[in-house]
Specification:
Helix content is about 45%, strand content about 15%. By secondary structure, it is of the alpha/beta class. The protein starts with a helix and ends in a 17-residue tail after the last helix.
């Protein structure tokens, strides 16, 4: 009995020492793919509540800038982890940068098309449609080609001003972001003029945390600790959304982001909803092989990939 107790104490001491040693080691710089907002609440919570520190990993959150996007920072080794949508990660892997998904937060697709004047987006062939200049939108391009809609894509930086001003026939939007910007701007949004990709055979996962495979293989323990603490942050946010929102607003204020608490509350609620798998009704925090295959096939058929990117090359090696 005494031996068992001593053994337990020794193991706990060894684990604590390992965590402390890791905590004194190199810092992991994490760059979300966009500016401070509730889309990244779980990571803010993990930092603010000390989950990263408890896991024995030093994490510094640095947001991207308009001149230096997240993936650029990762390529230049200015950060070690970033969030990417699955389709983005596949394009990057196809471009010769091996990536590893260490944590998948999104289980559902958030992209929508909103048309002006109450029109159905599928009836607007050749329409001028807004699309993000920093990426995303791969599934929308595939849909436009598949359904012979021949949209004319008009790139925008970060807001819906062009669409609200009447310069566009429709715009892409995320259900947790630009969609609510349009609602706040007084735009009409209904089943008649909103096309939700997740409801039409395009339910492909989006946000996940990625590292280069080379970095992951050299820092497996650090990467796994970071992923576990990040997941804990998201689970805490789901259980304490009001407190999580308080933490989000601290980051928003620190970064001088032009937004408001109402907008961030709506965003957090929708992001948390999108984390629940439609089939299992659970937060699974995993990349789904079937969604990787679906996205890979579609993007390859639309010549957006030179080859099919597989699930096996995106997940960590055992």
């Amino acid at each position: 009995m005494i031996f068992a107790v001593l053994l337990t104490v020794c193991v706990h001491t060894a684990q604590t020492a390992e965590a402390q040693t890791s905590a004194k080691g190199e810092t992991l710089v994490f760059t979300p793919q966009w500016t401070a907002q509730a889309q990244f609440a779980g990571y803010y919570v993990a930092e603010a509540k000390g989950f990263y520190r408890e896991a024995g990993v030093n994490v510094r959150i640095e947001h991207p800038s308009s001149t230096q996007p997240a993936m650029s920072r990762l390529r230049k080794n200015e950060c070690q982890a970033t969030t990417l949508q699955l389709c983005q990660a596949m394009e990057i892997a196809d471009d010769g940068v091996p990536l590893v998904n260490i944590l998948q937060t999104s289980m559902n697709n958030a992209m929508v098309i909103v048309s002006a004047r109450g029109k159905d987006p599928l009836t607007q062939k050749g329409a001028r449609v807004g699309i993000w200049s920093v990426g995303f939108g791969q599934l929308a391009i595939c849909m436009s080609l598949k359904d012979h809609l021949n949209y004319e894509w008009i790139r925008f930086a970060q807001n819906v001003n062009l669409f609200v001003a009447g310069a566009l026939d429709a715009t892409l939007a995320m259900s947790y972001n630009e969609y609510y910007q349009l609602v706040q701007a007084g735009m009409e949004v209904s089943d008649k003029n909103v096309y939700r990709f997740c409801d039409h055979g395009y339910n492909v996962q989006e946000d996940g945390v990625y590292m280069t495979r080379d970095y992951y293989l050299k820092h497996k323990d650090q990467a796994q600790r970071f992923a576990q603490a990040s997941r804990k942050g998201w689970e805490w946010a789901a259980q304490h959304p009001d407190e999580a929102l308080d933490i989000v607003m601290q980051y928003v204020d620190k970064e001088h982001i032009a937004t408001n608490r109402v907008m961030q509350r709506l965003m957090l609620k929708e992001v948390l909803r999108l984390q629940v798998d439609r089939e299992s009704k659970k937060r699974e925090f995993r990349l789904r092989p079937d969604m990787v295959r679906q996205a890979s096939h579609m993007m390859f058929d639309c010549q957006m990939l030179s080859r099919e990117v597989t699930y096996e090359e995106l997940i960590p090696q055992k």
